[in-house]
Design brief:
Blueprint (H helix, E strand, L loop, with lengths): L1 H35 L5 H17 L5 H6 L1 H12 L7 H27 L2 H21 L4
Helix pairs in contact: 2-4, 4-5, 5-6
């Protein structure tokens, strides 16, 4: 009887230890799925799909090889955003136009740094792309 009780206790102890890890992974996956359709235009979603793992996995681990490997895909998705027509309404368009220019400039520098820059230059230009995207996406009017 004691062996059976010990085995039951061990099973539930292991379950309690692993539950928070599984739960955190599920939450992260749910966040990513929710973020997928968060933006006003599909081009923003496509860009974010490439950006998200770079921001949350590659960058914190200083994995510049992965960032360089995804640079063309990220830049291409970003360029699709820069080709979007500005939102209707003079006020909305005027507010977004300079941010779109900053995003476009950041993308161009990122592409250069991914091709021939140091890891420090790549990190700086990647962060600029991320930050200008976040600002642009936040200012873009919802449909």
């Amino acid at each position: 009887m004691t062996t059976k009780l010990y085995a039951t206790f061990t099973f539930f102890a292991m379950l309690a230890i692993t539950y928070p890890a599984v739960s955190a992974q599920e939450k992260h996956g749910a966040h990513h799925e929710q973020a997928k359709h968060h933006f006003a235009a599909k081009e923003f979603d496509a860009f974010h799909d490439v950006l998200h793992p770079l921001q949350h996995e590659a960058l914190p681990n200083n994995d510049f090889r992965t960032i360089r490997a995804k640079a063309t895909e990220l830049a291409s998705a970003g360029e699709a955003i820069t080709k979007l027509p500005l939102p209707k309404g003079a006020k909305a368009g005027n507010a977004i136009k300079p941010q779109m220019k900053r995003f476009s400039t950041a993308l161009a520098k990122f592409k250069r740094d991914a091709a021939a820059g140091t890891d420090a230059q790549l990190k700086e230009s990647y962060v600029a792309v991320h930050d200008t995207f976040e600002t642009l996406a936040g200012e873009w009017p919802r449909k």
